[in-house]
Amino acid sequence: MSATVSRAVRRGPALAAALAVAAVLAAAPADAPAVENGGIVVGTVVLAPAERRGPVPVRNQGFVRRVPNALKSPRALDPLPQIVVVLDGATPPEEDRRPPTQPVRYSILGESFEFPLLPVVVGSVVEIRNAGRGAPRLYSPGAADLVPPDPIGPRGERKTRKIEPALQTFELRDRESIHLSGRIVAFPHRYTALVAADGKFTIKDVAPGMWKVRIWYRDGWAEAPEEVVEVVAKKESKPVKVTLPAKLVTRPAR
Amino acid sequence: MFWSKIWFFLVAVVAGVTLTLALVMPRPAERATLVSETNRLSRACVITEILLRDFAQSRIQLAEQTARVTGLDTVLLESTRGDIVSGSSYSTAKKILTDEVNFGTARKGEEEVAYRPDLILALDGRGRVVARSGRDETLYGDSLAGYFLVDDALDGYLRDDLWMVGGQLYLVAGAPVVTAHEPEWAGAMVIGEAVDKEFATALASQLHVNLTFYAGGQAVAVSDAAQIHEEMLARAQTMLKRPRGGDCKATEAFSLTSGDEAYSVLLARLPGEAGATGAFYSVYVPQEKAIGFSGTIKAVTKNDLSFSHFPWLRVAVVFLLMIGVGIALMIFEADQPLRRLSADLVLLAKGESERLAEDKHRGKFGSIARSVNIALDKLHRETRAARRDLDQLLGPLPDQEAAGSGAHPTSAAVTDLGAAFTPPPAPPPPSEFRFTDGGMRLGGGPGPAAGMGPGHASAGPTAGPAPGFAFDASGAQRVSPTDSRLPSKPVGLPDSGRRPSGQSPISARAPTPRPPVPRTPLGATPPPATDPGVGGSVQQEDFLASATGPGRTQQISIEDDDEEDTVVAGQRAAANLARAGGAPSAEPDDGPQYRAIFDEFVALKRRCGESTDNLTFDRFLTKLRANRDALIAKHRCRAVKFQVYVKDGKAALKASPVR
C-alpha cells in the first residue's frame, strides 16, 4: 500500500491524496486484528532549506564538468525518494510481521526503478518487472543469489529470493549500465512508508500504541530527532513532523 | 717497431670500435624511433582527449541552444503535467525539432554541409521522451529518467556524457528546458553524436594515427582495419583496474601484432557512463620495422652524404692523420733502420768495413747486424783454421803473407779472407788448390774463377808461387751425378788433329809401362812417408775440397797448367812435408797403386788435350802421399782414395777420406 502511495505521489498530487484517504479509511485498531483495529499515522518529513542541503551530488562526469544553467538555479539535493519512515518501539502483532503471501512488485520504468528504495517485510519475495525497453542484467553486490543473473527482457519478470535478514539493504544493479540502480531493505514489520514529493507520508493499519517514528535513509538509520506518535484504533494520529538535518548522516542498523 | 705496433693496435681498436658502432647504431635508432612513436602516441592520445572535450563543450552549447527554441518549453511543460505523453505533444515537439531548430553546419570533406546530430531527445520534466530525432524517431513516452545526464539536466545542469545505446556509443550532452516567462522546469534536451567509423576516421585523420573506440566489450568505431581488437580488449582489462585519470600519460604504450604488422598502442579510458562499464579508446600506429645495419645502409640517401650532413672534412683529416702517423712510424722505425743496415752491408761487401756497426742499429736490425758479425767471426775462425791446415800441408807462405800484408794492410783477417772477399788484382794462376765446402757458401759472388780463388794471391806471378787457396761454396761447383767432373766416366780421346801444338804425348816421358791397376777405389794407404823426390818438378795442385760433414767425401783435383807454379808449389809441399814429418820416405807398397792413378791421370790429360811434359811419376807420387797424409790428419780417416775425373775440360784428381 505504501508503495502504491509513493508511486502515486510521484505521478500526481491528486491521485496521491485519494490513495492516502483510502489508506486512512483502511486502517484498523492495534489490539484487534491490525486491519480492523489499526490506526493511521500521518506526518510530514521536513527537509532543510535548499540552500543548506546543497546541490545534487555528482554521480558521474563526462569530458567536462557539469555546469548550472543560467536561467534558473539548479535543484537542491532531495533525499526524500530514498527515505523510508519506520515505526519502532512497540511490538506489532504477528500478522503484521509476516511477509506477504504474494511477491512485492518492483518495476523498472525505462532507465530507473520506480522507487530508489523499496521497503519490504523481512522474508518477502520481490518480483522485478521490466517495464522499459532495455534488457538489464541485474545483480546485487554482496548477494549474488538475490536475483537471477540472466537479462530481463521488456515486460519480463524475475523474482528474488526471500529478502532477509531485516534491516539490511540489498542493492540491485545492471551490468550493462551504471545508472540503473535500486535498493531493497527488509524491516521486521509492515509499518513503513515511502515519502511523497511534498514530504507527506501515511502508515495505515498500525496497531494502537506508542510508536517512535524513525527515518531510514538509503543504507541505515538517519540521525534525526525521533518523534513519538500515539496510535489509536481506527483513528488517524496527530500529524507527525520529522525535520531532517541538512546533511543526512546514517548509522548502520546493527 | 714498437710504436708502429702500438699505432697498428690503436688503428685496429679504432676500426673495431667504429665497426661495432656501425653495427650497434641501428638499435639505439630503433629504440629512439620507438620512444618517438610512444611520445607521438601519448601526444595523439592527449589531443584526442582534448578534441573530445572540445566536442563535448560544443555539444553542450548546442543542447542549450536547442533547449531555448521557442515553443519547446511549452510543449514539454504541458507533457510534464500530464500522466502520459500525448500524441499532440509528440507531434508539436517533433515539428519544432524538425523545422525550428537550426543545428548549424559541419565541414564534411571540403565543403560545409548542414549538420544534424545523430540523436535529439526532447524530455519532459519526468524524463519521458516527448519527441526524438534520429534513432527511433517514432517512439515517444518512454522514460529516460535514471540516466545521470537526464537527471542532472532535469535538475538544471548542463553536462555531457557517453551512452551505450543498442550497441552504439553516443557522445551526448544535456541541457534543462526552462520556461520562458516564469522560470519553471519544463524538461530537458539531449543531443547525441554517434561514435562510428566516420567519426573515428575523421578524428584519426586529424592526428595522423589510428583510432578505435571500444564499448560493451567490442570495437564500436574503428579508423583502421587492423584486427587487433581481441588482444586490445585483453590488455585493457589491466588498465581498467587502475584508478582513473591521466591514462594517456600514466599508461605505457605496448606492441601488438596483426599478421606481419606490428603496432604501438596506447589505451585510454573514456569517461561517463560508458567509461564506467569499460569503454575506452586506443591510439595506435604501425611500428617501424627493425632494419638493422644493412637496412640502415640501404636507407642512406644521397643527401645524407652531402657535405652539409656528413663531416667529410673531419673524416678526411682523421684518415690522413692516421695514414700520416702510420707512414711516419714506418719510416722512422723500419725504412730508415733498414736503409742504414743496407748501407752498412754494402760497405761490408765492398770491404770498406770489417764488421757491421751494431750500435748504430736498433731492435731487430741490431740483432741482424750482430748475427752477421757473429757469422763473420766464425768465418774468420774457420779461415784461420784452414790456413793453418794449408800451412801444415804446404808450409808457410812468407812471401804471400808479406805480399798480402802489403796489398791489404788493414788486418790479417782480411788477408785470410782475401780469397773470399777481395777481387784479384792480377790474373789467376794457371792452377790452384781450392777447398770447396759444398754445404756452406762463403763469400758469395759470381764464383771463384772470377775473383775469389787464385786471384787472391795478390802477389801475382811475380810474388812467387801463390797457392791460390780459396773457399768455394758455390752451388755451381758442387758435384752432382750428372756433373762432368764425376770420375770413372769413359772419356773420349780428342782427335790428334785437335791436340794443341807443342804438346808431346806424355807417354814419351812416362816411366816404363806398369801393370794395370784398378782405377778406383784405391785401397787402404799405408802410413805416410816422406818422399825424397819432392824437390823435383812437381805440378801445382789445386785442392777442391768439399767437406759437407764428417765422413763425407773430400775431393782433390790436380791440374797441370803452369810448370813454374807447379814447381814452386811442389817445393812448398815438399817443405811442408819435411816440416811435418821429415823427408818423405819411399813407400814401395803403394807405388803400383799410385802408378795406376798416375797413368790414368796422364791418359785423361791427354784426352783433354793437356800437356804432360812436366808431369813425372815421382813428383805425382810425392804429392799424392802428401795429400793423403794431410787428409788423414785432418779427417782422422784410415785411408784416402783418389779418383781421376774431368773438370772444366781438364783432368783433375779427387781425394776421398775412407773411414
Throw out a few tags for this protein.
heterodimer, A: 254 residues, Immunoglobulin-like, 6-stranded antiparallel β-sheet, 4-stranded mixed β-sheet, 5 helices, B: 659 residues, Beta-Lactamase, 5-stranded antiparallel β-sheet, 19 strands, 17% strand, rod-shaped
Give a brief rundown of this model.
The complex is a heterodimer of chains A (254) and B (659). Chain A has 254 residues and is mainly beta.
Describe the structure.
In chain A, 14% of the residues lie in helices and 36% in strands. Chain A has helices at 2-11, 13-25, 34-37, 50-53, 94-97, and strands spanning 39-46, 67-68, 83-88, 104-109, 112-113, 117-121, 124-130, 138-139, 157-163, 169-174, 181-187, 192-194, 200-206, 209-217, 220-222, 227-231, 240-243, 250-251. In chain A, α1 (2-11) packs antiparallel against α2. Chain A starts with a helix and ends with a strand. With 659 residues, chain B is of the alpha+beta class. Among the domains of chain B are: 68-194, Beta-Lactamase, CATH 3.30.450.20; 400-477, no CATH class; 530-658, no CATH class. Chain B contains 19 helices and 19 strands. Chain B has a 5-stranded antiparallel β-sheet, with helices on both faces. In chain B, β8 (210-215) and β9 form a beta hairpin. The longest helix of chain B has 42 residues, at 26-67. Chain B starts with a helix and ends with a strand. The A-B interface holds A 11-12, 56, 59-69, 71-75, 109-112, 132-133, 176-180 and B 49, 52-53, 55-57, 60, 64, 83, 127-128, 142-152, 154-162, 164, 172-173, 175-176, 178, 183-185, 216, 271-273, 276-277.
